[in-house]
Amino acid sequence: MIRKAKFRGMWYPFGSRDNELITGSLSSNGNLCAAILPHAGLYYSGALIRSFFEKIDKKRVKVLIISPSHYYALPAGAIITSDFTFSETPFRDVPTCKAAISGSIINDDVIQQEHGIEMFLPFIGKKGNMSVSYAVISSLQNASDAKEIAEKIAKIVDTETALIASSDFTHYGPRFNYFPFGQNALKKVEQHDSEAANLLAENKGEEAYRAYCHSTICGIAPASIVAEVARIKGWQGSCGPHATSLDGKEKDENFVSYRTVFWRKNE
Length: 267
Description:
Blueprint: E1 2-3, H1 16-23, E2 32-37, H2 42-53, E3 62-67, E4 80-81, E5 86-88, E6 93-95, E7 105-106, H3 108-113, H4 115-118, H5 121-127, E8 131-136, H6 145-154, E9 161-166, E10 171-172, H7 185-201, H8 205-212, H9 220-233, E11 235-239, E12 243-244, E13 255-258, E14 261-265
Parallel strand pairs: 1-5, 2-9, 3-8, 3-9, 4-7
Antiparallel strand pairs: 2-14, 5-6, 10-13, 11-14, 12-13
Protein name: AmmeMemoRadiSam system protein B
InterPro entries: MEMO1_fam
Family: Belongs to the MEMO1 family.
């Protein structure tokens, strides 16, 4: 069963040649094993996602994507997976496996509809030697769930698995019903999101969820869980490149902040 590329031709180009202008060749490798990455349309997020896939450890040929749900209201703490065997991308159909997370529920519709999953698939397809699995987790019952779920996920993350938490950061302005900062909002959002990213990079996922679960960081649950997996695994985190939806545009009262956090295995 194939997960169709629902957002192809809308949130990113349709053809492989146009997509390669965004993904690049991805022929280089590095030592990264996990990341928090944005999931906006690739015009906004493509360069940030690419910066991870250009430096991923070449041994990490299985990718587990953990995304929030933007289209289905899910119970707090629910873990949604799928039975897809392939995922369509502009480059190839990527082998897809069920994420064998204890207590997870299969719901292919949730996975099919989710752009927070799909934005990474052109990069995985272009990389050429990767498989993928999915989990959707929208929120937690309490901050301590970040550690509990991380312990389940850590059991299936081996030395061949790369982990991605799918999350944009602050959504600001009347459109998002979130505008507490008044003048110099962009600068204040940058400070707010820098503090959140630093906390996650320090592998303090439970603390980050407690501090930011009421913010408009849409993937704070996946991000907090991945930070806790990093703590369990002993990975070293650092903040990566960042951007906003206003970059290269005229001033707008509505904008979204994009941050990245990268983890590497301590040698």
